[in-house]
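User: Can you predict the 3D structure of Major Facilitator Superfamily transporter? Sequence below.
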Amino acid sequence: MSHPSGVSSILDSRRVRRTMRLSILEGSITQLFLNWTTGSVLIGYMLHLGAGPTELALVASVPLLAQVVSPFVASLAASLGGRKLLTVLLAVIGRGLWVLAALLPLLALPPEWQGGALVALVALSSVFQAGNGTLWSAWMGDVVPEQERGRYFGLRAGVLGVVGMLGNLVAGFFLDRLPAPFNFQVVLAVAVLASLIGAALYLLHDEPPMHAVKADLRRTLSAPWRETNFRRFLSFTLFWHFAVMLAAPFVFPYFLQELRLTFTQVAVWSAIASTCALGTSWWWGRVADAIGNKTVLRFGTVLAGVGLPGTWILAGLSGRIEFIWLSAVLDAFAWGAIGPAIFNLALGSAPREERTAFFAMFSLASGLAGCLGGLIAGPLLAGFLPLVWKTPYFTWTGYHTLFALSGLARAQAWVLLRRVEEPGAIRVREAARATRLRWTGRS
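Assistant: Sure. Here are the predicted structure tokens for Major Facilitator Superfamily transporter:
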């Protein structure tokens, strides 16, 4: 088998396939931890602890701010000449810290401090997990053959989505039927156990060898910005993550507080999205292999800007929960395109010999921009909440204003993609025709 990315000269085909299969297994187990320490579980825990808009924005934003450590971790990996053991160490520490979150109600903290303590714990854990994510991304980028990345990471995302769906349903069942905070403690304890099993599986992965080089943090920070095409990609990344995080911290609070959904209903929303994502992620991956990640990303960002905030707003204005189920389907289509495409475009825009450093800067840039968007979102929502517009037919709230603002920004992100070059990408009109043919099975 020929691997244009250069992997075949480092790992043979059998070891590549074995590591790709192991990565799906590891990701499936770790997905339980990721779902149970974010989303409705974390937001529900924060609301139980009495969190307000500012704390909700902070707990969504600090994981992104933690990504500033990525270039430092990349430099450390380069000086060590390997990523596996450092990846495992960062995973174990970052995930193991969540034991403290499960024990938080048992600690002798004043009630008014508990929400802030959980935010601080999320921030500390995220520092280690961000480093882990940067190394894993560069590592798997070296393992997976370039011509298969769209299909593989699309399939992996779909499988992980189904596992996450089942996990969300189980968590929703426990959260609705057990008293708080015991329900949150049980879910978080099981999440930590699953995450440590996932970390242990990293040890079974094969790693392409790296030559130890002297750490050059200055070059790690500056080289990605000197490469013209990658700089254009980073400009898109900055704007996109800022726009997304203007609304993202408050979607689940909106579901739980404004729309009065139960944890089980939120889990059903996740289940619909995850089930649809199993097909859409794999399908978008095939489309990306044919027409390019850039074009797929353009479709996804516009859909995420128009469709998602639009259905959230319509659900609130009409009082019809059916719009929430529709938003779950649109979520799968939008993020099934965006997730693998932005990951693969980052890999494809970075020179292979400096992939870890370039991916670290991608992580840092998206983290800083997303954190800034989330931090601004808190005061924005607080300012919008008193501005309520009531009519005989609907009530427009501050949540709707925030969602509309984020949606408008998201829908314009594609403009910054136009100057990003990607070999093999085709024009939008040609892409639409190719996408239609693949959807109907005539490709």
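Confidence is low (pLDDT under 50) at residues 1-9. The beta strands are 389-390, 395-396.
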